[in-house]
Amino acid sequence: MGRVVLLGHPVSHSLSPPMHNAAFAALGLPHRYETLDVAPDALSRTIDALRRDETLGANVTIPHKEAAIRLMDETSDEVRAIGALNTIVRRGSRLAGHNTDAYGFERATAGIGEGDALLLGAGGAARACALVLLRQGRRVLVANRSRRRAEDLARTLEVAGRRPQVVAWPTGRELATPIVVNATPLGMHGEDPLRGLALPRCVVDIVPTAVETPLVRRAREAQHVLVVDGLSMLLHQAARSFELWTGLPAPLEVMRAALPRPA
After folding, report:
1. CATH class, 103-231 region
2. Which of 7, 202, 242, 243 is paired with 107 by a 20 to 30 Å CA distance?
3. Is the pTM of this model over 0.90?
């Protein structure tokens, strides 16, 4: 039996285990997906142990998506472009880092239309979102509670000579762009990162929660607001990770059905 682990801190809230385990069962694969809470100071030895365990690989989530890169034997072009990984594939004793967040975000946002985007956040997931938004030809404004991290994102991401522009966290009543993407953890514990602001025509909240985040709920209640929530990105990035581990097409509808609500 092969094992896949989700490395993060914390990870108890994750919706990934039932989704991946349903996919393994549907294809008759004797594998198991488990969570593993890993503090930052234990990341190196935990990943090194993957080389010796009977694992297919791992997913990587907050706060390890950037730090895990230096622990890989090889990385994909996407990881190098983004500066973050979320998937590890084991081949013998070698570990390869991949990023399926960009794929998942691209699939989830395929129908959001044209327009500039305000990106909230500057971590590993935000970096994947920023790359996709730039590839879509959008002007990308990035705001983060730590301006230094936002500036680092803007300095190290580039598509066709274009980079994100760092702006202050939005205040007042109106947003400067027709699209906003929440790529922070805000919403995981009941926060609304746009509290007090009028919503734009499109809200993308990548926080994957069993119940709607306050931002998604408010956007769904508003008129004329297109909403993409975190389960859609989660589903598509998970399907791509599954294919990297197994070499088989992911049973997408089985994985979708294992989520706690429609994606």
Report:
1. alpha beta
2. 7
3. yes
